[in-house]
Design a protein that fits this description.
The complex is a heterotetramer, with one copy of chain A (772 residues), two copies of chain B (77 residues) and one copy of chain C (266 residues). Chain B is α+β, with helices and mostly antiparallel strands and 77 residues long. Chain B has helices at residues 16-27, 50-61; strands at 2-9, 33-46, 67-74. Chain B has one domain (2-74): Phosphoribosylformylglycinamidine synthase subunit PurS (Mth169, Chain: A, 2-Layer Sandwich). The model of chain B has no long low-confidence stretch (mean pLDDT 92). In chain C, a hairpin with a 5-residue loop joins strand 10 and strand 11. Classes of the chains: A alpha+beta (772), B alpha+beta (77), C alpha/beta (266). The structure holds adenosine-5'-diphosphate (ADP) and magnesium ion. Magnesium ion binds next to loops of chain A.
């Protein structure tokens, strides 16, 4: 590498030609460092720095300095997401942000780990492999905290399935192609590994045509006393799992750049298919090593491969490492040392083992038919010495490597100046409700959900599909991971990219509210959150402005809800020839329930019961599906009113604990109308609702019916229990709005006007038809 | 017309099924097998040109990023 | 003396933990043993009182579901298994385990273990993996030791290849033979016990004559696609919030029968 | 030596994957496709005779109840 004499243009060219995705400042910094050392960097060193400093690995934007509309934000991460956790300071947060996954207490020595990742660019190019390795990768994050992976979630965003072929730019795959192969890839990995996929969502929007979004999450059980994270000098760096190949080189830098027409050709090496059975074997070995207490630290090989895994482990352990790349078992002969060092081949883990345990550990993996190869040894000096045979191919000071240059970026936010549409007041809302139920974002995802095994392990006690015919849309999954305890884990998510088109602040606020209320609806509490941003190029101030707004909402709402963030991720540079991705934040929620027998499903249970609405309905149709049905976006996006909401939430949990809640469903896409229909057809029980008494702002009936205001629930209460229920709910905004009926119909009235009257079977059919 | 489309992973892309087949053959004593690769074949009956079959590959059957496909016309038996 | 069961595993087996739980629930011991340890002879089958081949994706279900493990079991453990079964000891194959038994030639085994498969479990008609709860009707007249006294059961299926296929042209003849030998055990049914008659989704995979499980002519080897270990406790039922938590799950009885029967052999 | 084994469903055995591919092609507008059949190919590298490869098919690669196999020797490229 000729760097010392390079001019700025040369630095820029070098960064581009070698696909380093480094900026001029960063290249200069490297040049300066090596000028001081008085030598040129080796190609391995340069590649290592590119990986380590990539957006993907160090979240430059989130940790940088941002000028936002005149305000200076010093680390978005520290001042929003992490700040919530720091200020709430919950004793049950066992490990947050610092490791591969966040960990909270569960039961005695057991903790729960949770992580959600994105795998967007690989899924755009090779949807099956991209999605599968997305699942494989996040499972390794759980293995990387010594966790036993017990459940998966997936949230997927695609372009419209009926998108015209003619409009597709060259090199872009049709949404339908991506959809079917992504779904197949997710199912194949989870099913093969025997990890149930228990929760998720699928959304469609034009903004995902060029850049689909694939979120994969995994929940695992951790034994806190076996959570070993510090390698000591003298310990062996053991590489475990599949062989290292030329696949997945530059995955990280690829993820930190925009997609373009040639991505198909140039990023072929980033494409991988994945081998779930290999990972299953690795998992068995790791759990055994954990239980026998044989190792001192562990991490997965993800972005950056060995380079990150060894570098980060050494850095965290305050030591260095001597590495021998010629020992790494290869798939392809004749790989360059830097390729071996940065390859992102799947299904590999790094385990740090004291010498005296090495033989036993290698034996454990041999029994599982997994290769385990000592590739290095930790040393006291904080440096990496990377050898290939006799040759020193890289010598890196960890201090330099991990003193990542802080970037400074500009962010602006301008109100998009939207207007509320004026819709004609409908005579009859029944056809509208039927259409809403059939909209792809709302319609039943059963045809997909059933291709995922959600039963394996026999721990899923509240399943994604619920009710009399096991086909109603559940709000959250409940897991009972232990045979000898009723304690449960509750998994839910919240996402609504439509709101972000109006204001990312309210998108994030609403996503938190949705994730939390889905969790509460089934009986979850003590909720921890994960944030997951998918955004466009942060170097463009308008993109970044929205991101800042969303992050601010994360602080405000999560703080008020006392729901700390424990982990998260941001995936930026989601842009393609079709422009930027629809800015999207996914909030995943992890709650617990002391006794899973108290969990509540969303299906109505029997005729003759009362139905209540909790929370107030506002005239907030901005971003609603009702507007979308007519091609409008609107302006009045739903707000989160934290103190009103908190009241409702706490009271609902009390009512569930007293056994007063027979069914509960949160109000989300499609508002009261859709939620009522879903509860009724899922339970095969009729429902009659009057809007007259519902707590609400002054507004038209159709608006009240389809407004998507946050923090609301519909609740079924046993006939004789109304008084008890109302007592528990005292001080909350709620009203008894209806009753369950024998007649299998949904009837919604306002005053003397019948707004909706429909057979349950017609509602169900409308909901199921779209994606059958 | 009868078209035969054959789809295989590009060299360098992992073929897990090939690997487990190798493993299985070894376990049954065929230990001189050095490598197994798999491919999938679609035999498509229909009045289409080669270009159209190619489009089927691109739009549904294969992913050019990770897979190679070959198209052959076969005589109707 | 506690009974001891052997649960096979191979790379990709993934229902071993819940299967072990089901057996241990009856106070039995259950050991999960890697197929390599059985093939190498490190662990011998003769010391066990019963075998379960659990669900999962052994060797990735490559070639065909259960094929690779099936051949390893069929070719490398055949003598041990023959002896095991001649002693009347029970063998249960669930889902992937059923596929393994068929590929190994241990089922249907019209005339004893065969060298080539006598049946196949083909891709589901839907060409998809399916996770759903279904109803089973026990159509066995009493030979199968796992299902005595059972009528209609509910449990999940979770598979992509579960459609029973008999050799073309001989189906009717072989079907009659299955009936004569009392080898038909479970059929897919509706909640009221009437047969699915091939109708989806009551019959989730298009299986021949709705067959979901068969036994060998002795009645001591049972293979079934649905998962009794996942319907062991009521809390895993998909609609327990409606139907309550009274009693045990239907899958319980299959393991109970297996254990009770194994008990009679000692 | 390089052998190519091709496994296909016996005539009369339902080819679920072929059928769903047919539906997929129709959905994309290729509605003149009359039928799709699938097969799987194993390319096996190893010093074996045709008889031995045949044995591999019988013992592992094909299930005689539902599948047929054909074996071809391919020249090493
Ligand atoms: N891609 C998916 N994978 C797994 N489960 C899913 C997926 N999409 C939806 N689900 C499940 O289906 C149910 C209903 O989903 P959805 O209609 O998105 O509910 P909600 O409106 O509460 O977000 C939930 O249990 C959810 O976890
Ligand atoms: Mg919901």
């Amino acid at each position: 590498m000729k760097l010392l004499q390079a001019k700025d243009e040369d630095l820029i060219r070098l960064s581009r030609e070698r696909m380093l995705s480094l900026s001029l400042e960063e290249m200069r910094r490297i040049k300066e460092h090596y000028t001081k050392l008085g030598r040129e960097p080796t190609d391995l060193e340069l590649e290592t720095l590119a990986q380590t400093w990539s957006e993907h690995c160090v979240h430059k934007t989130f940790r940088g300095i941002i000028d936002y509309n005149g305000e200076v934000v010093d680390s978005l991460f520290a001042s929003t997401v992490a700040r919530v956790t720091r200020e709430l300071n919950k004793a049950w947060c066992f490990s947050v942000f610092k490791d591969n996954a966040g960990i909270v207490d569960f039961d005695g020595d057991l903790g729960v780990a949770f992580k959600v990742e994105t795998h967007n660019h690989p899924s755009a190019l090779e949807p099956f492999g991209g999605a599968a390795t997305g699942v494989g990768g996040v499972i390794r994050d759980i293995l990387g905290v010594w966790g036993d992976p017990i459940a998966n979630t997936d949230v997927l965003c695609f372009g419209p399935l009926d998108y015209p072929y003619e409009k597709l730019p060259r090199g872009t795959k049709h949404p339908r192609f991506i959809y079917s192969y992504v779904v197949a890839g997710i199912g194949s990995y989870g099913n093969n590994m025997g990890i149930p996929t228990v929760n998720g969502a699928i959304l469609f929007d034009e903004g995902y045509v060029g850049n689909p979004v694939v979120y994969c999450g995994t929940v695992g059980l951790v034994r806190k006393s076996r959570y070993k994270t510090r390698a000591l000098p003298g310990h062996v760096a053991l590489l475990v799992g599949g062989r290292t190949g030329r696949d997945g080189i530059h995955g990280v830098t690829f993820a930190s750049a925009e997609l373009h027409e040639e991505s198909e050709e140039t990023s072929g090496s980033a494409v991988q298919i994945g081998d779930p059975i290999m990972e299953e074997k690795i998992k068995r070995g790791i759990l055994k090593v954990r239980d026998e207490g044989l190792a001192s630290a562990i991490t997965d090989l993800g972005g950056g491969g060995l380079s990150s895994a060894i570098g980060e482990t050494a850095e965290k352990s305050d030591c260095g490492c001597v590495v021998h790349l010629e020992r790494v078992p290869l798939k392809h002969p004749r790989m360059e040392p830097w390729e071996i060092w940065t390859s992102e081949s799947q299904e590999r883990m790094l385990i740090c083992v004291p010498q005296e345990n090495l033989e036993r550990v290698v034996d454990i993996f041999r029994d599982e038919e997994v290769e385990a190869t000592p590739v290095g040894e930790f040393i006291p000096e904080k440096k990496l010495y990377v050898y290939y045979g006799e040759e020193l191919v890289g010598e890196l000071s960890l201090d330099f490597m991990f003193r990542v240059p802080r970037i400074r970026r500009k962010a602006t936010w301008r109100d998009p100046n939207l207007r509320e549409p004026r819709l004609k007041e409908p005579e009859d809302c029944t056809p509208i409700l039927l259409s809403l139920l059939g909209m792809p974002n709302i319609a039943s995802k059963e045809s997909i959900i059933r291709t995922y095994d959600h039963e394996v392990k026999a721990i899923t006690v509240l399943k994604p599909l619920q009710g009399a015919f096991c086909d109603g849309p559940g709000d959250a999954a409940v897991l009972k991971p232990l045979y000898d305890s009723w304690r449960g884990i509750v998994i839910s998510n919240g996402i609504n990219p439509e709101y972000g088109k109006i204001d990312p602040y309210h998108m994030a606020a609403s996503a938190i509210d949705e994730a939390v209320r889905n969790n509460l609806a089934v009986g979850g509490r003590r909720i921890a959150l994960l944030d997951n941003f998918v955004w466009g190029n942060p170097e463009k101030p308008d993109r970044l402005g929205g991101l800042v707004r969303a992050a601010k909402a994360c602080y405000n709402v999560a703080k008020a809800y006392e729901t700390p963030f424990i982990s998260g991720k941001d995936s930026l540079y989601n842009e393609s020839t079709l422009g930027q991705v629809t800015s999207t934040i996914l909030i995943s929620a992890l709650g617990i329930i002391p006794d899973v027998r108290m969990s509540v499903s969303m299906d109505l249970k029997k005729p003759g019961n009362h139905v209540y609405i909790l929370g107030r309905t506002y005239n907030e149709l901005g971003g609603s599906h009702y507007y979308k049905l007519y091609g409008h976006l609107g302006r009045n996006v739903p707000r989160v009113r934290v103190s009103e909401a908190k009241n409702t939430f706490d009271a609902l949990t009390r009512a569930i604990d007293k056994g007063l809640v027979k069914a509960c469903h949160d109000l989300a896409e499609g508002g009261l109308g859709v939620a009522a229909a879903e509860m009724a057809f899922a339970g095969d029980v009729g429902l009659r609702i009057s809007l007259d008494d519902a707590p609400k702002e002054e507004m038209r009936g159709d608006a009240a019916l389809f407004s998507e205001s946050n923090s609301r629930f519909l609740v079924e209460v046993e006939k004789g229990m109304a008084e008890d229920f109302e007592k528990v709910m005292e001080g909350c905004i709620l009203a008894r709005v209806g009753a369950t009926t024998k007649e299998k119909k949904l009837v919604i009235t306002e005053g003397s006007k019948v707004m909706v009257r429909a057979e349950l079977s017609d509602l169900r059919e409308a909901w199921q038809r779209t994606l059958r | 017309m009868l078209w035969e489309v054959r789809i295989a992973y590009k060299p360098g892309v992992q073929d897990a099924e090939g690997e487990s087949t190798l493993r299985g053959l070894h376990a049954l004593g065929f230990d001189k097998v050095e490598e197994v690769k798999t491919a999938k074949v679609f035999v498509i009956k229909g009045d289409y040109t080669r270009e159209e079959v190619e489009e089927m590959c691109r739009r549904l059957l294969a992913n050019p990023v990770s897979q190679d496909y070959t198209i052959a016309e076969v005589s109707v038996e | 003396m506690a009974l001891e069961f052997c649960i096979f595993r191979a790379p990709g087996t993934n229902c071993d933990a819940e299967t072990k739980h089901a057996l241990e629930y009856f106070g039995c011991r259950a050991r999960v043993v890697h197929i390599n340890k059985l093939i190498s002879g490190e662990v011998k089958l003769s010391s066990f009182d019963g075998i379960v081949i659990p669900g999962g994706f052994s060797y990735g279900d490559h070639i065909r579901s259960g094929a690779i493990l099936g051949k390893m079991v069929g070719e490398r453990l055949k003598d041990q298994l023959k002896e095991f079964s001649e002693n009347g000891k029970p063998i249960l194959g669930i889902c992937n385990g059923f596929q393994v038994l068929v590929e190994a030639g241990l089922l249907p085994a019209f005339r004893g273990f065969s060298d080539v498969p006598e049946a196949a479990l083909g891709k589901n008609l839907s060409n998809r993996f399916e996770d759903r709860w279904i109803y089973l009707r026990n159509d066995n007249k009493g030979k199968c030791v796992f299902t005595r006294g059972l009528e209609i059961l509910r449990m999940p299926v979770n598979h992509g290849e579960g459609k029973l296929i008999l050799p073309q042209g001989e189906e009717e003849k072989l079907y009659r033979q299955l009936l004569e030998n009392d080898q038909v055990v479970f059929r897919y049914a509706k909640a009221d016990g009437t047969l699915a008659l091939g109708e989806y989704p009551a019959n989730p995979n298009g299986s021949f004559r709705d067959i979901a499980g068969i036994c060998d002519p002795r009645g001591t080897i049972l293979g079934m696609m649905p998962h009794p270990e996942k319907a062991f406790h009521r809390i895993t039922y998909p609609d327990w919030t409606r139907t309550g938590l009274e009693g045990v799950g239907d899958g319980y009885w299959i393991f109970k029968n297996m254990v009770d029967y194994a008990m009679t052999l000692i």
